[in-house]
């Protein structure tokens, strides 16, 4: 590394025609270090097989129980309104002893609060229902 401090003759009219590459080398080394650090992070992930989406029509069996929850939190058992949560648990206990046990299919209104759906799930759990499903509409488009 050299530095030009002037000529021996005392004249400063000489033009320096060399390019100073020190800042270029500094920038290139910083970029090299950044790439060496980030490439292993981007390529090392846990290899997992993700499930693929399948859309199939749900076949509602006559023995399945359809429970609908509207946006106000009212619960309907196969289109008849259930007065309260205790009545729902009692009805679910009656059907939970059947062999094979029927599936409970919950149809929740899009604007219903999660709390209302959660109460139905807890009622199914208290009654001993093993299989609970959620019915949704297929995506449009």
Describe the fold and architecture.
Strand 1 and strand 2 form a beta hairpin. This protein has helices spanning 22-43, 85-96, 114-127, and strands spanning 65-69, 75-77, 80-82, 104-108, 132-134. The protein is rod-shaped and about 110 Å long. A 5-stranded mixed sheet has the order 3-2-1-4-5. The model has no long low-confidence stretch (mean pLDDT 81). It is built from 3 helices and 5 strands; from the N terminus they run H-E-E-E-H-E-H-E. It has a domain at 65-134: Nucleotidyltransferase, domain 5 (2-Layer Sandwich), CATH 3.30.420.270. Helix 2 (85-96) packs across helix 3 (114-127). The chain has 141 residues and is α/β, with parallel strands linked by helices. One of its GO terms (molecular function) is transmembrane transporter activity. It is a single-pass membrane protein; Single-pass type II membrane protein.
Spatial strand order of the main sheet: 3-2-1-4-5
User: What Rg, in angstroms, do the CA atoms define?
Assistant: 36 Å
Task: Determine the number of helices (DSSP H or I, runs of at least 4 residues).
Answer: 3
How many DSSP E strands? 5
Q: Regarding CATH, which class of the domain at 65-134?
A: Alpha Beta
CATH architecture assignment of the domain at 65-134: 2-Layer Sandwich
Computed structural class: alpha/beta
* Overall mean confidence score, pLDDT: 81
Quote the CATH topology of the domain at 65-134: Nucleotidyltransferase, domain 5
**How do the SSEs run, as a string of H and E?**
HEEEHEHE
Shape: rod-shaped
Protein name: Biopolymer transporter ExbD
Organism: Chitinimonas arctica
Family: Belongs to the ExbD/TolR family.
Keywords: Cell membrane, Membrane, Protein transport, Transmembrane, Transmembrane helix, Transport
């Amino acid at each position: 590394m050299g530095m030009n401090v002037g000529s021996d003759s005392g004249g400063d009219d000489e033009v320096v025609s060399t390019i100073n590459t020190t800042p270029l080398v500094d920038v290139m080394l910083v970029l090299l270090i950044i790439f060496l650090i980030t490439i292993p992070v981007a390529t090392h992930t846990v290899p997992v097989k993700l499930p693929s989406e399948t859309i199939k029509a749900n076949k509602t069996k006559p023995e399945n129980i359809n429970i609908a929850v509207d946006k106000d939190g009212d619960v309907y058992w196969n289109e008849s309104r259930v007065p309260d949560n205790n009545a729902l648990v009692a009805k679910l206990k009656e059907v939970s002893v059947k062999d094979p046990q029927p599936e409970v299919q919950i149809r929740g209104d899009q604007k219903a609060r999660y709390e209302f759906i959660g109460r139905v799930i807890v009622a199914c759990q208290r009654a001993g229902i093993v299989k609970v499903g959620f019915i949704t509409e297929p995506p449009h488009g």
